[in-house]
């Protein structure tokens, strides 16, 4: 399926997901294709790190295979054998889900759009570090991290900013992307003369908070004045296995910090709760789970909800399918929910683009090229590659 057809399908899907019992926000927009500025020699490169997603169903197996064999993301016994088996077994089910949201993930198109808008603003606000060029480095789908690092090298970038697109840091997500960069250079010489800066987390940035506030206000306005104050705001974030949490991963605390600031900005206008989604496998994960929370509140007589994807910066399978289809449509019908809406991800909201710009400019103008927190491991870390990776980053960020 072509990119244009993909977004046409997503837009059609968005119009179809309104039902009397559940009014879900299935947000999609035609994001611009990547603009290749190869004719411009960039002074500063902004490397946007994320998990990525398959742009069509044919890429699903390779995408799952990379996830299931990445020990930073998930740890399995005899992973070299079990990982490929799980990926193959899950492929048809996941392909079906991508088919239901238009044939593939829109995450690359959104990231391209965000990168373009970011660099346009950076060129105006920070001419001393211009021209700026964004690069997309996905962990499990094209463009892969190693391919993008080669492009940066070939472009002769003078200063590279490694910018995690996960606002809240987790070793399983941001950590895996940063380790992938270390592993790439472990067998190669680091680019001579290149300056490095790292943006590893930005969960409490005021403009990120403001973006979520605006997204929530958009949805609250759709409720009648009689019901609006009773709407429960459920902030939904990707869960983590409890063994990862207990190692000292900072992600749950950082997600909680974002939620607290959003509600403070909203003057605590509504009841709210932080819930967790996307549990996989039989092990214990951080809860309460989003679907179980909805069931619990319905039992308590609650009928109106807004779901807020608090840890995602753009639409993808977990917003467009898990939240919109599985919860806002199917589960809402099963539970008899009166109204449930889903706040859009930040996507290309102007305030969010301002947030990205301010975060990068602040790092470019700072004397500190890396957050000291990034350079320490979790208190109970068992990943030896993290130790080597942290030491490597401490060294290259001295330049």
UniProtKB/TrEMBL annotation:
The keyword Transit peptide applies. Pathway: Porphyrin-containing compound metabolism; protoheme biosynthesis; protoheme from protoporphyrin-IX: step 1/1. GO terms for biological process: heme biosynthetic process. It is a peripheral membrane protein. It comes from the Eukaryota. InterPro entries: Ferrochelatase, Ferrochelatase_AS, Ferrochelatase_C, Ferrochelatase_N. It is found in: Mitochondrion inner membrane. It is an enzyme of class 4 (lyase). Catalyzes the ferrous insertion into protoporphyrin IX. NCBIfam families: hemH. HAMAP family: Ferrochelatase. This is Ferrochelatase. It comes from Atta cephalotes.
